[in-house]
Amino acid sequence: MHTAWEEAGWERLGDGVARRRMPGWDETIGVIAGTTGVMIVDTGATLRDGAELRRTIRGVLGRDVTHVALTHPHFDHVLGTAAFAGVEVFGAAGLGDLLRRGKDELRHSAVRHGVDRNAAAEAADLVVAPHHHVHGQLTVELGERQVLLANVGPGHTAHDLAVLVPGRQGAPEIVFCGDLVEESGEPQAGPDALPQQWPGALDRLLALGGEDAVYVPGHGAVVDAAFVHAQRDALAARFGVAPAP
């Protein structure tokens, strides 16, 4: 039997928690619903993406997104944020300054990856910097549900944020990893990656979620802790970092 989330094109991960793999770049968008708040994790590659996400979430829940968590500063994860007017935006410390300084690079990156030039320019011009900066960990209350935001980077970028949803009634914890973890292909280490520090970021991610958590990559299918351990070791070998103790 399909849930309302699945009928709307989302994958249900738990009670009030779902995610969607977006067309085009396969980036994961997460949603976490509490009694008084709704958080979206990342916002897509364009304002049109963001608006469509906002509409579908409202259609399932009957209420609007109240919080945005941005996992890192790449175009396919942040350029839809302006579609969520009046929403509280969270990101790793330093992300706001980077987005304000880097509008041109965001636009160029989006166009290089196939976003329409006008759509990329519009979204980059309106890019939203976080209102709340996560240095270590920060708890956000969505009514009865608490969500933990953790600055676990640097790694994939200098500003990697993970989102932990505590389990309910024996259900496992759910960790939205951003692009620190990728399942659908080899993790992408672009010019803004810090590869020597990436394995350490995955160690912190695993310490955050634990061995029984469900890990949601920035791209690809949901994975378990064993997959994250294996990706951590592969990255360490690739970049000449010491194995995990």
From TrEMBL:
Gene3D superfamilies: Ribonuclease Z/Hydroxyacylglutathione hydrolase-like. InterPro entries: Metallo-B-lactamas (IPR001279), NDM-1-like (IPR050855), RibonucZ/Hydroxyglut_hydro (IPR036866). One of its GO terms (molecular function) is hydrolase activity. Keywords: Hydrolase. It holds the Pfam family Lactamase_B. Residues 26-219 form the Metallo-beta-lactamase domain. This is MBL fold metallo-hydrolase. It comes from Streptomyces auratus AGR0001.
